[in-house]
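Renewal narrative, Specific Aim 1. Our central claim is that a sequence can be written position by position from structural information alone. The example that follows is taken directly from our test logs and has not been curated for this report. It begins with the structure tokens describing the chain, in the order in which they were read.
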């Protein structure tokens, strides 16, 4: 057989790797829905494995429940939230491209940030959160970051290494001030292919070390404090044009993976937002969690092994007693009567 034919056949039989560059066009887009599958057997994932021309095989992981991410236009969010993010004249650095509904925040047990939208900006230099809108102790408020949170730096290539800090501080009526500081250390520590039940992708692997600290000052007492929320390690496998990471694992300070998910559907959608009709709080909880909704439905509570430990119906306002369960993390899935499904990770603290 001629040497040229042997060479061609050899090349065809080799695994094909492409070292990609990620930029703003690969981030979420308004008019798309990104559905991710939470993983039941995340404990088997070794997120430390990485390198150049590496093949990560997560194709056999077991799916548990689904989450949907729907980017929406800034103008479709509550008007009181938009002040800093739709104002090119006064706040050009904080103008956002889109918003995403985000988890509630329980600030030191005295500040409640509910019905949150985070505002995102994607440009040539990075994927950024410029601030958020929320009901802060029941008052709709627009909150800009004093230092913008840079999630990823662009252009993203293998070997990139960077750090960024972000913060905000807000006045809370009748209480004082509350804020958070974020410190991110980011390194693109691998490239190659990643296989999930959704498919196989050329990718970059990004490791983020995220440290979050709460700041609280109570006017009536004249005292303030910094309250560390701890450090977590976020591992993202990012492919071209998929919008969100095709695989994500989160580990604690000890390096143990505590949750993971993979992209399972990427759909073009009509822009709408319905998740605000269901509210779940407080989280973390000391033993009782509340559901407020425009709709009725069913809830399912799972432990982190995927075992169903509680289920029942919920009404437009329902209190769920969790006091008999041990401290730790659980998964709750709410299934509304219109078919809407929301899955959240909750923490019980005793």
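The sequence written for that structure reads:
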């Amino acid at each position: 057989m001629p040497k040229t034919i042997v060479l061609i056949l050899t090349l065809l039989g080799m695994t094909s790797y492409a070292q990609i560059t990620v930029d703003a066009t690969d981030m979420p887009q308004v008019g798309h829905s990104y559905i991710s599958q939470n993983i039941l057997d995340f404990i088997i994932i070794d997120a430390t494995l990485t390198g150049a021309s590496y093949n990560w095989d997560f194709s056999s992981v077991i799916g548990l429940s689904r989450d949907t991410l729907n980017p929406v236009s800034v103008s479709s969010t509550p008007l009181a939230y938009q002040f800093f993010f739709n104002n090119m004249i006064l706040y050009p650095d904080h103008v956002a491209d889109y918003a995403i509904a985000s988890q509630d925040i329980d600030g030191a047990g005295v500040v409640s940030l509910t019905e949150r939208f985070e505002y995102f900006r994607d440009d040539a230099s990075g994927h950024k959160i410029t601030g958020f809108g929320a009901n802060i102790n029941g008052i709709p408020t627009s909150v800009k970051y004093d230092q913008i949170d840079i999630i990823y730096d662009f252009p993203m290539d293998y070997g990139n290494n960077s750090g960024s800090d972000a913060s905000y501080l807000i006045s809370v009526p009748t209480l004082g001030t509350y804020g958070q500081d974020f410190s991110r250390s980011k390194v693109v520590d691998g490239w190659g292919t990643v296989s999930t039940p959704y498919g196989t992708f050329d990718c970059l692997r990004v490791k983020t070390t995220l440290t979050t600290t709460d700041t609280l000052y109570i006017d009536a007492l004249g005292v303030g404090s910094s309250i560390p929320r701890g450090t977590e390690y976020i591992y993202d496998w990012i492919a071209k044009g998929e919008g969100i990471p095709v695989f994500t694992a989160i580990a604690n300070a000890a390096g143990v993976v505590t949750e993971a998910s993979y992209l399972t559907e990427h759909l073009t959608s009509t822009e709408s937002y319905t998740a605000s009709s269901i509210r779940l709080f407080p989280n973390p909880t000391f033993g009782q969690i509340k559901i407020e909704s425009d709709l009725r439905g069913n809830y399912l509570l799972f432990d982190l092994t995927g075992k169903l430990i509680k289920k029942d119906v919920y009404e437009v306002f329902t209190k769920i007693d969790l006091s008999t369960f041990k401290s730790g993390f659980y998964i709750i899935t709410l299934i509304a009567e219109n078919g809407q499904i929301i899955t959240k990770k909750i923490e019980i603290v005793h």
